Amino acid sequence: MTLTTTLRHCIVTIVLMSLLGTVIKRYSPTLIRSRIVKPVTPRAMHIQSIPMWEGSSNNYAYLVSDDKTKEAVIIDPANPSEVLPHLKAKTDAGFKLSKIINTHHHHDHAGGNKEISKSYDIPVIGGRDCALVAETPSHKSKFSIGSINVTALHTPCHTQDSICYFLEDGQDRAVFTGDTLFIGGCGRFFEGTPEQMHKSLNQVLAALPDDTKVYPGHEYTKGNVKFAKKVLSNDAITKLDEYSQANKETQGKFTIGDEKKHNVFMRVDDPELQKVTGKTDPVDVMGALRTMKDNS
Ligand SMILES: [Zn+2]
């Protein structure tokens, strides 16, 4: 190799090194900044909706799993023929099903427990009247699904054994509300009073963080909006109306914060609703709204 060639190589290397230096200087602050601002944290909590009796009672079971520990639970698996294939797929994928969880004892929520238990020998966690119940968690007690933290919230009224389950995985929050809270509505007062529903919705569930996603026991949103529009008009109700017209499923798409705006049963202090019901006390407004909805 001649001296000229070696010199040429050196110059080319120096030029390339300085170019590389410029590129690193130019882009590294952005790279470092983007890493600090948006850390890549894999989401561990997965919620799979399983529609049941679609077109008639439009129930939902939910298969909740934790990616970190491969633990999974099934919430309200009322119709085994529609649920079992999903459970099999999940366990075939390496997950361990640890619990059946029920929101209340009604047949279209807890009616599948016996059949599911034949295939999976796991405990039933739920209200005191649920089939095969092994444990009824007390109000505000906590348990876990792998790394997901669960808080049981007693919300009696639709039934006396109604329990909602609040799940937290870091910044990811969800509440499974059975027939207590629906998107834009609430369950019928089969075993309870307007006072109990007022407490369940507007004290217990309303106290959850506003960004908590709501997963109810039924897809009833279209009917709920139809009633809401008769008694109240606001932007949130218009938005919910548009969404439910365009989308068949609404579970997990709205939050507790949204419910406070578009759910008339969570707006019992709204002057327009006081006017339309002719009541001022929030419990009386709740009772009057439920009667109007039942008769609509
Ligand atoms: Zn029910």
From TrEMBL:
GO BP term (any one): methylglyoxal catabolic process to D-lactate via S-lactoyl-glutathione
Catalytic reactions of this protein: an S-(2-hydroxyacyl)glutathione + H2O = a 2-hydroxy carboxylate + glutathione + H(+)
Broad enzyme group: hydrolase
UniProt keyword list: Hydrolase, Membrane, Metal-binding, Transmembrane, Transmembrane helix, Zinc
Stored CDD domains: hydroxyacylglutathione_hydrolase_MBL-fold
Metallo-beta-lactamase domain span: 58-218
Pathway: Secondary metabolite metabolism; methylglyoxal degradation; (R)-lactate from methylglyoxal: step 2/2
SMART domains listed in its UniProt record: Lactamase_B (SM00849)
Highest taxon listed in the record's lineage: Eukaryota
Known EC number: 3.1.2.6
Cofactor dependency: Zn(2+)
Gene3D superfamilies (UniProt xref): Ribonuclease Z/Hydroxyacylglutathione hydrolase-like (3.60.15.10)
GO molecular function, one term: metal ion binding
Record-linked PANTHER family: BETA LACTAMASE DOMAIN, TENZING NORGAY, ISOFORM C
Family: Belongs to the metallo-beta-lactamase superfamily. Glyoxalase II family.
Protein name: hydroxyacylglutathione hydrolase
Organism listed in the record: Ophiobolus disseminans
Organism classification: Eukaryota, Fungi, Dikarya, Ascomycota, Pezizomycotina
